[in-house]
Structures are given as structure tokens and as C-alpha cells.
């Protein structure tokens, strides 16, 4: 229901309360169907003892009233140390504790014999000096409510009543102009059937005070055009109310793009028409191919792909391209990067879990990459993390260790990816305690931040401290530490260790080093196991300090721990593995978070803003900007069987995704309703790879697109040693994956990024590498090698190491080519693996990689460029320059230059001292344009 | 006009350097032009160093000792005398005690945000955080109000800044070094060195080509904050790369050994030295971070063996160094964490810990017009609350800006045209400047 309120409606509202002041006497026990009027009406009549017999309820009235008066705010008695010796639970809802604090015998806060002497009446009326000042007048309704509650015994039943919901009217507010206002009315519906107007007991907030403001009484006032929500909180309930004010620009001269039948477009258009916003036109083909390629695969399209796509005349070429992109290996890699962000795949947090460093996080990545490449359904992928076991059914501990040891050897990384689960998910250092797991689990799979409720009632969601504690308990029986194995494997593990260490008694780092070496040498090392303890019990906190022998006994007597899933009433007792209950809850079609969280995150990847934003904060008080859209996508996603490719395809094929970044007057400031493409800085890995591909030869670039392991999206540049982290990835804000926040990844621009692109040694190296695009291209024309930067000794040892490794690898290729053919066949696979690993190491050392193509013949490695004499002889430089310029544009901006740009660029190369210098400068310039670093 | 500076005073070294190298443009003529334009005022300070202590340092165990409080509150440290009669600080700050005349201690600073992020946002902006609006860090405001030459960054953070530029836009974001200087190792910000082997001429040629080709978003009206920010960073990077000024300032190995010695070998001390060199070279605002103050556990061991000695050495060397170079008068210094720590010691570890406590904390201010050697404000007997009127982060921000000649009551506009007062509720603390 939407209504357009007017000022008079508001005045009417106010006068009702005035009338109530004088003449209405209402008894508290209204019938179930009737809505009780507000407390202020019921308690503001003559001398209290004569007119009011109603006893206020602690949960329904006293608690919320104290909240509304500001008593339990953080600045006051809600502080964790209390204030003036009096502490209330922050944001209320810990009724037991609050009641106990109020009734503290020695404090005199509540005095049932001499009611008016009670401090909770004397202090807030400032009769007794109150640091918090005067909160209400003597004799006011607030005073009378508290007074009557005390007089009638100041009781609290101890049992929580359950609030069904709150009904807020109007449900949606549509304003016409600034300064209009409308008052909200809030009715609480309790499960015993009673209804009560609780407007004056609610907490009100606005999500954007530049659009709408709300005061303490629930009066909403229009500030600017656009849309937002005001949020009402009472008891456990949190309810957002949409506020909207349309844009007033004339739309006469704006061309309205054709209507689309795509469900996304229809739902977006519906919202836009309410706001009087006209969306931008569809983007050009070159914008589309670049944008779709970057968003779907994390890579720039190859120049060949762009050329072919632009020349393609088929009407459905965009749809065809989407399918092509979804099948690229880079799609799986880039999305494995994003899934790694959300699931917290951090080597720093997994340090030392597996005996070989780096293995735990790389296995995790490869496992995701394989599944995304095969389009395994989302729920199955999550199941592999949540339900992970270390051993396969029927696998012995010895067999398990053998497989894992093998997987840790270079070249055999794929072994792990084919196993059913990722037990290291549970072994992260920041995912150890039940509380941490509750927070991390909710972050990864529910897209919500429940950590607030760890200490107090969540201010913008329904979670109480109790809910948090119950949920966290569910995670207590799952154990995953570097030294943990199941009971039956302990002896075997100890034997393995002693056979590896001999007589020496190694500990900690020394032991790990020894084991890691043994694994590389081909030995089998012991691996840790995830263990779920059956019938899990803990002794109570207090007994921890007690006598040990005694507490052991008590431990045996302690009950099996139990907990509850968020928002569920059923108690789960930890007799066996609680994870299956969690998993089936995630899969329930009615689960409010599971599918919405991932749909929203995928959407974010394509638009730079979520339908709920931030994407990891899907709380009640932070509703979607387009609820119908999020509902549609998540419902259909579930119906599709959690088919991620369906989701990608559906989003990317909409006009909404394909909007131009050119705005019109109505949508120029829209950033949350998807009426245009909002440019954003490319993500760290994408920038790093875009520079890499733009400066590499076509052959190298093609190789990387098939085998992405040399690229940042391939997940292997991530080092566990912070000093070895790829510098570009740091500067451009790669996710640290450590704090359960999507904000661990940054898309902000900064000065250092510009300095990097203009003058970092990495950039100069890539532009001038002897087997890079600039060198090869200019060599074809001039036959002259260009200078190469970075082989100077400015980086000392690292460079030397790189140079010598490079030489070594080139030597291996040369000797391979000298072998007879049958021998080559035998050696090829092994050498390819070695070269690939070598190149990865070279990249880490900041050195050029070796380019290779192992053909089974007696040819030279492609490093030695065979110059075609015909080019040199017939070279028409102008024609060649034109080709260069086109190619430079296609490999950076994924489009052809226009006539003006072509002229500028060609002239520049012609006037350069060396064509190679001209070309290098041109490529440098294009890499430094905004068009390169931004999506558009 | 007590401190109307000329090149003769504080910026002499810059002028000399510029004169010798002939690059950059901080000339006297340039200076006078700006002085008349009102950018360089009769004000006290025109640059600042912000010492950020993320985690929230314990006030009781550092600058607000309570020797007479019960031992569940007092803690294990004893107070010592300083070179200012009547002022006592923790025994683990002996070097700062010897230069207490150079800085003012603010006690009983108070707010209510006990979460790290929110508290940090509050003390680093002077405005209580709002959900719909991000306030700018001090550094970003200073960067905007007090421009620098393009070849030197206006706002640097070593290694990072907690607070971003908020509504002022990313063009005023700090240059984050991402690394800290290490003892006896050369230090430079990557990308500022000319190790690429490109000549300055070549860079100029490339830049001119770039300016002709970077046209795509030139006329787009939306998203100007991002687009302008990128332009601004691009041209600033260009200036910094082609001039040696910033490079030399960052290279702490250029510092005389005798001057550098008191800064010690620890990275925080060396970061303080770097900060000093940077403000001397004309950088307007430098953030230095020393983290690790979140001492829920083992409070006393961590403070006495690690944190306080580091802070003591680095900060005292900074105050003395600024004075020695004649920079203390022109450099406003503010040191603060996001909150204090609970007076009551928790017993979760044998050594004891203290938890988040915003209601009572300390800050330090120095430089510019701030009178050193005084305590401003006071906490109660147990350092649980301000004894009299509380000092708010807003008041501190207003005073800090005032010290820099920036009117804290001025209005800015957000990108959407919303008017915002720089510091909403702050009063200038007059006693600081008395």
C-alpha cells in the first residue's frame, strides 16, 4: 500500500493525542481483536491510583521505555561498565539481567514500599542529581508507567513473550517535495493475540538522511530526491519502511530505450519509473565485449576476439559471446578467486596446518576452480566446505597421508581437487573458537554480520545475545588443528613422525621443516584430520579453575552440548555431527539467506553495488534497493538447482547489465537502481593481469588464457610471506580474506596506484621485456633489439636468481630440442611441468618468463625470433604503424582508435627516435588512461 | 603577527633544496602569492604529524597514572616525574618525561564508541560516525585546505591511514607507503625511484601523449569524484616522479647520523624520522602508525617490554628533532588511539588485561600554538571518567584544525550537494593555546 500523505494528515494525528489528554480513560485489558491505544493515552489521566488499574509489562513496556528514554544507550547505562554503578544491556533485550539490575536490593533503583523514592523515578526527573539530565517530567505518562509498575510489585515473569510482528503504517512513503512529512504508527502483534500501539516505544533510524529524516516520535521528513528506508525497531522486531521521492527533471528530450521482456529489466524498470528515472541506452559492442570479458572471466578480451566480435553480424552475438566466456578456463579461475574471498581462503590463516607451506590455500583454490569449471551447483560446492571430511569413506589413515603427501609434490596439485571436500576450511586460525565460527559461517554463507549479537542485541536485526550463543554452540564439537587426528590414527601418526625424524626430538618449526622436506623427497608424512567429537560435553566456565581431578569428574557428568540454528526453535544436541543439520537448513527453499547472499554477491561483481549493499550485511534494517529483483533472482536460482551459470547468464544477458555509462539528467546521480553502468576501478588481480596480457605477445597471452596459472586470477601468485606478495596486488587492494568482511577487498583509487602504473619497475619491465609485444613487434620492422629494463643490478640477488633460473630453463629447452623424436615424446610432459613451475618462480622473482612451445620436431625454441626478410624488404612503415596503433588499442582498450586518436598515435611513433620507443610510449600511455583502469 | 613566517624561517631548507636542484616551484614569489591568497596565514602551524595508536592505548598505564587508586585499577607501573613540575607519567616513558615541556597532555577525553572501527573514525575525524556519510580524515582536510606543490604529496601515511578522505573524495586520500623504514636499509617508496631507466624527457613526452589520448570520460558528468581523483593522482604522480624532491625526503639514509641516532633502530622511531623529513620537505600531513595497543590480555608485559619503550623513543626523538630543526612551531602534532582502556583490570590472563574504554582516554598535542608542559582536562580518582567537563573528540578536532588555521566551523558540500559542517560539535580548547 502506498499513500501520499499531506500535512493535514499529520496535524490530524497530533490532535488525536491532544484530545486523548483530556477525556479518554482506557482500561488495559482490551479484547484480543482491539488494538490498545498508546501508553501515553492509558496513563495520562488524573491521579494514578484512582484511574488506572493496568499494570505495565516489563518486556512490552518498561524495557522499551528505558530504551526510548536513552537509558540503555552506550553513552549511559548501556556501557559495558555501566554508569553510576548501574548497567543495562545495550539496546535492551537481556530482560533478566536488566530486571535484576533494576531490583538490586542495595541500590534503591526500585523501591516498592516507597515508590516515589525509587531512583528510576527520582533520577530521570532530576529530583536526585542525574548525570544524564532530565529525561521526563514528574507526572508525565512515562513517570506514571514506571510508577505504576513499581507500585504493583515491579515484577518480571522471567518468561519471554513472543512478538509475532510489528505492523507499521504507512508501509511505504512517497513524497512529492522537500519538507513534506508523515508520521509512522507502529502496532505490535503478540502471539497471544493482543495488539498494541507502541509507536512511542520504538527506536527510529534512517538509512540515508540526505533523502529522509526521522525523529524520535516517528515523524518522517523528506529531504532530497531518491529512495531509502527508515527503520523501526521494537522488541526483537526490526522493520524497514521505504521512502521514495521521484526526480523532477523533464524527460521530454531524453530518448527512452526500448522496453525489454527480460525479467530483470522489467523489475528494474518498475522501480525506475517510480523514481522518474530513464535508464541509459545499451552500450556499444566494444564496451560490451570488454565489460563482459572482464566481469565474467577477469581478463581483457584478446585483440582477435574483439576484432571478430565487432565484425560479427549475427543478431544474437552477445548471447553467444556470454556462453563462450562462461566456458573459458579464466571464468572458473576468476570466480574461484571471488569464492576464495567469501569463504576466507587465506594462507596466512592456514599457516602450518598442512606440513607443506602454501599447500592448504592452493588446494582450496584448485578445488573451487575445478568445480566452477564443471559448473557444479552452488549448494554442492558449499556442502564440500561445510561437510568436509579429511578421509574418504573406507580410506585408511595411511592411505590418506599417502595421497595428501603426493598432492603436495610439485606437479601433482590436481590430486586434491578431485577429493570431495576442503577440511582446511575448518582449520583457519581465525575460525577456531565457536564464536569465530558462528561469525565466519554467517559471513560466508548467509551474508550477514551477527557479531554485534555476540555482546548485545543486534541493533538492526532480530538477533539477541542468546541467539548468537545458541548458534555458536553448534560449532563447538568440530576440531581441526595441525596436530589433531582421529583416535584410531594416533599411533600411526606418531610412528610416521618418529620414522621421519629418527632419534632426534624435533618440535614446532623444526619438525614442520623436516616433514616438509620429507614430503618433497617422496616420503609419506602425517597429515592432520578434521575430527567431530560425538556426544560433545564441556564443563561450565566456573569450574575451569576448580581442582583438576574434581573437574574431570564433573566433565563426565556435564550434559551434552546443544545449540540452535539462527532463527530456528528446534534444539540440536551434539550427539553426532551437527554439520548435516546446518547443511540441510541452508538448503531449505525457505532459507532467507543462503541463495540471496550468493545471488547478491554475484550481482555485485557485475554492477559494483549489491541489491543489498554492503553485500555482507543483509540485516533487516538494511533492505534491498529492489526487493522484487532480489526475490526473483534468488527464487529462480534455487529453482534452477543452484546453477551458477544460469545466474551469470541471466544477469549478463539483461539490458540492465548492458547499459551504457553515458548518463542522462535523470540518472546522473543514480548509483543504486542500476539505470546506467557506473564505472569502477578494476579489481587488483584484474588490473595486474590486464597489464600482463596487454604487454605480452599474442602467443604468450594465448597460452595464459588456456593455462591461467601464471596469472593473478590463477590464484598462485598469492604468497604466504607478506614481503613476497605481488606488489601490484597489494597496491590495488587484493582481499586479505582475514576479517570476515567483503571490505577486505578495496576498489578505491589512490596515488600509489598512479605512481605504479606510471613508473614502477614492474611496468617498465613488462613494457620492455625482450619477449614482450613491443620488442617483438618493433623487431619485426627494424630488426633491432630494443633496450630491456630491469636486468640492471638494482634488485641485486633476486634479479641474479631470476637471470640464472631463466638461463637454466632456456638450456633445458635447447637440450630438449636436440633430443631424437621418441625421446622428446617421453620428456615432453615432464619438461612442460618444469617450465611452467619455472615460469611461476620467475614471475615471483620479478623476472621475465620464458616463452616456450615444445613441438616434437627439430626446431629452435621460439625464443629465437626468425625474422622474415620479406617484411624488412617491403616494409611500408606507415602501413605498419597503423597496424601497431590498432593493435595497441585493441590489446588495452578493446576497441579500435577513432580517426583523431589514430592520427595522434601514428604521428607520435613517426616522430620518435626509434619506432620501438614510440610504440613503448604509446602502450604506456594507453595503460595510463582512465579508460584502461576503469570498467565502462 | 608573532609568527608570520617567510622562507627564512621554516621553509628555508626547502628553498635551498629547490634552488640547488632547480626543479619544483616553491619559490619566494610563489610563497608570497599564496600568503596573499590566504593559504598561509598568520596561523600557528601549517603542517601536521598524526601519531595513530590503533588498538586503544591504556591511559592509566601511560599518561594518566593513578598511583592512589586500588590495585585492581592502578596496575603494575609507577609514575615518574617529568621535566615539568607537577606532571607525572608512567615509568616506562622516561624519555618523554624529559621533554614533557614540549607537549600538552589531554586527560579525561571522553566519547562513547567502544568498537575499534567506529572509535577510530570518531577520533580521526572529530565527528561522530554516521551511517549515511563518511567524514574525512584530518589529513584529507588539511590536504585540501593547504595545497602543496605537485611534486610532493600533500598527505602521506606510514604505512597506512585508518581513515579515508570520506566526502572530500579520493583525490585527498593519503599516499600510503605500504611499508615502514627499516634500520640501516635504504628506504624509498616504490615507483618514485628512477630505476626504470627512463629519462625525464621521455616521461614528459609520454605524459603529453597521454593527455591527448585520455579523453574518454572528459565530458561525462557523473562519477566526477572517481574521475577527478584519477586525474589528480595521475598528474601528481607525474610531478613527483620527475622531481627529486619527494625521493630525497623519503630517503632517511640521507639524514645525518647524529640527528638520526635518537630515533633508534625500531621501525616506529624511523617512521617518526621519516615523518619529520617529509614535513620539512613540504608535505602537509603525515600519519605514523604504531599498533598493538589492544591489550585485552597481558597488558603490562606488552606495554612495558614493547609498546611504551617504542613510543617513548620515537615520539621523544620526534619532539626534540622538530624543535632542533625549528619545525615545532610550524608542525601541529596529535597523538591518539581510538579509546582508553578499562580502569578495572581483567583477570583473563595472569598478567591482567584491560578492555575497550572510550569514556576516559588521553591524547597528546604539540606544536604550532600549543603550549607544551601542561595538562589539559582531568580524570577522576580511578581514571574512569572526566573529573569535570569532558573533552570530546570534537573539541580536540576543532582545536587541531584551529592550530592549523583551518576554521572548524566551515561548511563543505558533499558530492550530492549536502552541506556539512567540518566539525559539528567541537569547541576550541582555549587552554591549549594559552
Explain what this protein looks like in three dimensions.
The complex is a heterodimer of chains A (936) and B (434). Chain A has 936 residues and is of the alpha+beta class. Helices cover 45% and strands 7% of the residues of chain A. Chain A is built from 39 helices and 16 strands. In chain A, the strands form five sheets. In chain A, strands 1-4-12-11-8 form a five-stranded mixed beta sheet. A four-stranded mixed beta sheet of chain A has the order 2-7-6-3, with no helix packed on it. In chain A, a hairpin with a 4-residue loop joins strand 6 and strand 7 (195-197). The longest helix of chain A has 24 residues, at 821-844. Chain B has helices at residues 12-21, 28-37, 71-74, 94-97, 116-123, 138-145, 200-213, 224-242, 244-250, 257-260, 267-281, 299-324, 393-403, 430-433; strands at residues 47-52, 79-81, 88-90, 103-109, 155-158, 175-176, 285-289, 331-336, 340-341, 356-357, 361-366, 374-376, 411-413, 419-421. In chain B, a hairpin with a 5-residue loop joins strand 13 (411-413) and strand 14. Chain B has 14 helices and 14 strands. Chain B has 434 residues and is an alpha/beta fold. The longest helix of chain B has 26 residues, at 299-324. In chain B, helix 9 packs antiparallel against helix 11 and helix 11 (267-281) runs parallel beside helix 12 (299-324).
Question: Quick recap of the structure?
Answer:
The complex is a heterodimer of chains A (about 950) and B (about 425). Chain A has about 950 residues and is of the alpha+beta class. Helix content of chain A is about 45%, strand content about 5%.
Number of strands of chain B: 14
Largest sheet entry of chain A: 5 strands, mixed
The CA-CA distance between the termini of chain A, in Å, is 38 Å
Order of helices and strands of chain B: HHEHEEHEHHEEHHHHHEHEEEEEHEEH
Oligomer: heterodimer
What is the helix content of chain B?
Answer: 25-40%
The value of Rg of chain B in angstroms is 22 Å
Our count of helices of chain A gives: 39
Instruction: Give the helix/strand class of chain B.
Output: alpha/beta
Distance between the termini of chain B: 16 Å
Amino acid at each position: 500500500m502506498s499513500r501520499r500523505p499531506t500535512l493535514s494528515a499529520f496535524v490530524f494525528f497530533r490532535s488525536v493525542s491532544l484530545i486523548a489528554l483530556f477525556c479518554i480513560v482506557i482500561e488495559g485489558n482490551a479484547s484480543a481483536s482491539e488494538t490498545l491505544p498508546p501508553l501515553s493515552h492509558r496513563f495520562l489521566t488524573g491521579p494514578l491510583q484512582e484511574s488506572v488499574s493496568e499494570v505495565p509489562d516489563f518486556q512490552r513496556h518498561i524495557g522499551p521505555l528505558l530504551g526510548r528514554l536513552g537509558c540503555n544507550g552506550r553513552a549511559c547505562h548501556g556501557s559495558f561498565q555501566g554508569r553510576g554503578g548501574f548497567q543495562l544491556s545495550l539496546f535492551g533485550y537481556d530482560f533478566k539481567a536488566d530486571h535484576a539490575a533494576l531490583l538490586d536490593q542495595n541500590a534503591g533503583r526500585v523501591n516498592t514500599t516507597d515508590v516515589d523514592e525509587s531512583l528510576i523515578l527520582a533520577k530521570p526527573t532530576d529530583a536526585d542529581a542525574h548525570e544524564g539530565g532530565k529525561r521526563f517530567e514528574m507526572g508525565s505518562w512515562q513517570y506514571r508507567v514506571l510508577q505504576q509498575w513499581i507500585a504493583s510489585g515491579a515484577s518480571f515473569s522471567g518468561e519471554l513473550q513472543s512478538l509475532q510482528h510489528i505492523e507499521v503504517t504507512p508501509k511505504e512513503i512517497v513524497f512529492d517535495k522537500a519538507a513534506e512529512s508523515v508520521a509512522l504508527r507502529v502496532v505490535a502483534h503478540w502471539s497471544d493475540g493482543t495488539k498494541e500501539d507502541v509507536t512511542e516505544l520504538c527506536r527510529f533510524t534512517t538509512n540515508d538522511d540526505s533523502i529522509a529524516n526521522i525523529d524520535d516520535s516517528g515523524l518522517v521528513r523528506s529531504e532530497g530526491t531518491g529512495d531509502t528506508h527508515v527503520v523501526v525497531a521494537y522488541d526483537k522486531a526490526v522493520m524497514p519502511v521505504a521512502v521514495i521521492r521521484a526526480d523532477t527533471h523533464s524527460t521530454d528530450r531524453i530518448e527512452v530505450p526500448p522496453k525489454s521482456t527480460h525479467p530483470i529489466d522489467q523489475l528494474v524498470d518498475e522501480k525506475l519509473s517510480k523514481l522518474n528515472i530513464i535508464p541509459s541506452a545499451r552500450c556499444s559492442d566494444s564496451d560490451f565485449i570488454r565489460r563482459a570479458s572482464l566481469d565474467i572471466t577477469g581478463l581483457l578480451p584478446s585483440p582477435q576476439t574483439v576484432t571478430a566480435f565487432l565484425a560479427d553480424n549475427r543478431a544474437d552475438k552477445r548471447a553467444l559471446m556470454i556462453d563462450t566466456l562462461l566456458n573459458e578456463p579464466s571464468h572458473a579461475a576468476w570466480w574461484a578467486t571471488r569464492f576464495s574471498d567469501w569463504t576466507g581462503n587465506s594462507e596466512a590463516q592456514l599457516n602450518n596446518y598442512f606440513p607443506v607451506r602454501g599447500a592448504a590455500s592452493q588446494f582450496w583454490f584448485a578445488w573451487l576452480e575445478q568445480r566452477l569449471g564443471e559448473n557444479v551447483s552452488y549448494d554442492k560446492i558449499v556442502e564440500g566446505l561445510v561437510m568436509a571430511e579429511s578421509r574418504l569413506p573406507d580410506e585408511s589413515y595411511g592411505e590418506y597421508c599417502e595421497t595428501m603427501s603426493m598432492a603436495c609434490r610439485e606437479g601433482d596439485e590436481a590430486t586434491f581437487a578431485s577429493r570431495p571436500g576442503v577440511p582446511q576450511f575448518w582449520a583457519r586460525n581465525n575460525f577456531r573458537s565457536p564464536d569465530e565460527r558462528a561469525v565466519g559461517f554467517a559471513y560466508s554463507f548467509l551474508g550477514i554480520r551477527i557479531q554485534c549479537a555476540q555482546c548485545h542485541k543486534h541493533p538492526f536485526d532480530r538477533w539477541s545475545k542468546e541467539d548468537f550463543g545458541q548458534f555458536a554452540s553448534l560449532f563447538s564439537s568440530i576440531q581441526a588443528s595441525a596436530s589433531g587426528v582421529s583416535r584410531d590414527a594416533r599411533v600411526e601418526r606418531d610412528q610416521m613422525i618418529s620414522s621421519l625424524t629418527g632419534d632426534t626430538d624435533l618440535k614446532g618449526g623444526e619438525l614442520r621443516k623436516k616433514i616438509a622436506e620429507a614430503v618433497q623427497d617422496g616420503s609419506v608424512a602425517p597429515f592432520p584430520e578434521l575430527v567431530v567429537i560425538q556426544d560433545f560435553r564441556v564443563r561450565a566456565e566456573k569450574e575451569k579453575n576448580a581442582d583438576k581431578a574434581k573437574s574431570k569428574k564433573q566433565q563426565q557428568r556435564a550434559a551434552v552440548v546443544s545449540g540452535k540454528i539462527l532463527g530456528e526453535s528446534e534444539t540440536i544436541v551434539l550427539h553426532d555431527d551437527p554439520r548435516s543439520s546446518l547443511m540441510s537448513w541452508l538448503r531449505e527453499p525457505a532459507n532467507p539467506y543462503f541463495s540471496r547472499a550468493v545471488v547478491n554477491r554475484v550481482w555485485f561483481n557485475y554492477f559494483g553495488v549489491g541489491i543489498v549493499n554492503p553485500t555482507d550485511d543483509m540485516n533487516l534494517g538494511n533492505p534491498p534497493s529492489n526487493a522484487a529483483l532480489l526475490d526473483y533472482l534468488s527464487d529462480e536460482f534455487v529453482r534452477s538447482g543452484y546453477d551458477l551459470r544460469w545466474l551469470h547468464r541471466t544477469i549478463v544477458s539483461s539490458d540492465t547489465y548492458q547499459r551504457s555509462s553515458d548518463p542522462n539528467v535523470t540518472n546522473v546521480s543514480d548509483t543504486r537502481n542500476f539505470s546506467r553502468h557506473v564505472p569502477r576501478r578494476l579489481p587488483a588481480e584484474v588490473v595486474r593481469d590486464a597489464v600482463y596480457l596487454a604487454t605480452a605477445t599474442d602467443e604468450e597471452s594465448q597460452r595464459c588464457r588456456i593455462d591461467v596459472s601464471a596469472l593473478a586470477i590463477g590464484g598462485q601468485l598469492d604468497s604466504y610471506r607478506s614481503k613476497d606478495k605481488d606488489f601490484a596486488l597489494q597496491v590495488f587492494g587484493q582481499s586479505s580474506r582475514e576479517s570476515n568482511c567483503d571490505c577486505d577487498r578495496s576498489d578505491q583509487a589512490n596515488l600509489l596506484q598512479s605512481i605504479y602504473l606510471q613508473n614502477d619497475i614492474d611496468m617498465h619491465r613488462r613494457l620492455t621485456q625482450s619477449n614482450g609485444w613491443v620488442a617483438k613487434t618493433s623487431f619485426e620492422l627494424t630488426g633491432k633489439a630494443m633496450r630491456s629494463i630491469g636486468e640492471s643490478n638494482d634488485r641485486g640477488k633476486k634479479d641474479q636468481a631470476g637471470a640464472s633460473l631463466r638461463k637454466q630453463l632456456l638450456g633445458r629447452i635447447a637440450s630438449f630440442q636436440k633430443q631424437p623424436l621418441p625421446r622428446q615424446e617421453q620428456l615432453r610432459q615432464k619438461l612442460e611441468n618444469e617450465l611452467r613451475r619455472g615460469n611461476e618462480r620467475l614471475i615471483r622473482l620479478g623476472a621475465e618468463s620464458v616463452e616456450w612451445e615444445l613441438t616434437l620436431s627439430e626446431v629452435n625454441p621460439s625464443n629465437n625470433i626468425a625474422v622474415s626478410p620479406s617484411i624488412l624488404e617491403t616494409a611500408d612503415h606507415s602501413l605498419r604503424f597503423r597496424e601497431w596503433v590498432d593493435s595497441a588499442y585493441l590489446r588495452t582498450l578493446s576497441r579500435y582508435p577513432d580517426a583523431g586518436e589514430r592520427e595522434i598515435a601514428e604521428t607520435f611513433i613517426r616522430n620518435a627516435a626509434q619506432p620501438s620507443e614510440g610504440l613503448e610510449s604509446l602502450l604506456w600511455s594507453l595503460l595510463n588512461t582512465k579508460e584502461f583502469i576503469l570498467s565502462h | 603577527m608573532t609568527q608570520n613566517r617567510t622562507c627564512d624561517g621554516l621553509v628555508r631548507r626547502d628553498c635551498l633544496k629547490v634552488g640547488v636542484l632547480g626543479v619544483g616551484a616553491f619559490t619566494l614569489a610563489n610563497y608570497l602569492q599564496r600568503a596573499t591568497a590566504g593559504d598561509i596565514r598568520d596561523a600557528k602551524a601549517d603542517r601536521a604529524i598524526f601519531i595513530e595508536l590503533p588498538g586503544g592505548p591504556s591511559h592509566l598505564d601511560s599518561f594518566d597514572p593513578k598511583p592512589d587508586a586500588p590495585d585492581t585499577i592502578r596496575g603494575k607501573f609507577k609514575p615518574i616525574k617529568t621535566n615539568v613540575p607537577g606532571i607525572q607519567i608512567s615509568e616506562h616513558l622516561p624519555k618523554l618525561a624529559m621533554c614533557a615541556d614540549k607537549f600538552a597532555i589531554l586527560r579525561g577525553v571522553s566519547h562513547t564508541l567502544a568498537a575499534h572501527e567506529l572509535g577510530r573514525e570518531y577520533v580521526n575525524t572529530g565527528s561522530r560516525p554516521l551511517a549515511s556519510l563518511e567524514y574525512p580524515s584530518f589529513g584529507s582536510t588539511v590536504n585540501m585546505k593547504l595545497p602543496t606543490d605537485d611534486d610532493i604529496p600533500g598527505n602521506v601515511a606510514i604505512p597506512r591511514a585508518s581513515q579515508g578522505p570520506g566526502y572530500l573524495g579520493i583525490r585527498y586520500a593519503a599516499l600510503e607507503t605500504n611499508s615502514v623504514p627499516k634500520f640501516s636499509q635504504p628506504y624509498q617508496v616504490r615507483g618514485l625511484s628512477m630505476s626504470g631507466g627512463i629519462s625525464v624527457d621521455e616521461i614528459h613526452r609520454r605524459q603529453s601523449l597521454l593527455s591527448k589520448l585520455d579523453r574518454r570520460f572528459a565530458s561525462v558528468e557523473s562519477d566526477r569524484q572517481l574521475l577527478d581523483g584519477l586525474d589528480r593522482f595521475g598528474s601528481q604522480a607525474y610531478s613527483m616522479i620527475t622531481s627529486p624532491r619527494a625521493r630525497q625526503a623519503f630517503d632517511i639514509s640521507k639524514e645525518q647520523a647524529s640527528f638520526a641516532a635518537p630515533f633508534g633502530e625500531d621501525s616506529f622511531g624511523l617512521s617518526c624520522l621519516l615523518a619529520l623529513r617529509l614535513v620539512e620537505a613540504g608535505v602537509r600531513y603525515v600519519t605514523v602508525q604504531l599498533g598493538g595497543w589492544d591489550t585485552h590480555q597481558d597488558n603490562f608485559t606488552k606495554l612495558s617490554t614493547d609498546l611504551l619503550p617504542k613510543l617513548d623513543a620515537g615520539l621523544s626523538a620526534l619532539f626534540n628533532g622538530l624543535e632542533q630543526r625549528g619545525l615545532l612551531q610550524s608542525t601541529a602534532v596529535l597523538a591518539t588511539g581510538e579509546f582508553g582502556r578499562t580502569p578495572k583490570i581483567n583477570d583473563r590472563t595472569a598478567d591482567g588485561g584491560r578492555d575497550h574504554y572510550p569514556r576516559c582516554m588521553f591524547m597528546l598535542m604539540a606544536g604550532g600554538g600549543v603550549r607544551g608542559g601542561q595538562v589539559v582536562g582531568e580524570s577522576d580518582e580511578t581514571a574512569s571518567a572526566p573529573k569535570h567537563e569532558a573533552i570530546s573528540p570534537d573539541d580536540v578536532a576543532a582545536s587541531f584544525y584551529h592550530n592549523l588555521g583551518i576554521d572548524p566551523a566551515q561548511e563543505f558540500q558533499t558530492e550530492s550537494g549536502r552541506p556539512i559542517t567540518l566539525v559539528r560539535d567541537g569547541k576550541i580548547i582555549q587552554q591549549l593555546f594559552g
